[in-house]
Amino acid sequence: MAATLPPARFPHHHLLGIESLTPPEINLLLDLADDFVEHGRRTDKKLGHLRGLTQINLFFESSTRTRTSFELAGKRLGADVVNMSVSNSAIKKGETLIDTALTLNAMRPDVLVVRHPDSGAVALLARHVNCAVINGGDGSHEHPTQALLDALTIRRRRGRIEGLLVVICGDILHSRVARSNILLMTAMGARVRLVAPKTLLPATLASYGAELCQDMEQGLDGADIVMMLRLQTERMQGSFVPSVREYFHLYGLTYEKLARAKPDALIMHPGPMNRGVEIDGRVADDIHRSAILDQVELGVAVRMACLDILTRSLRSAP
Question: Which H or E run includes 114?
Answer without folding.
Answer: strand 111-116
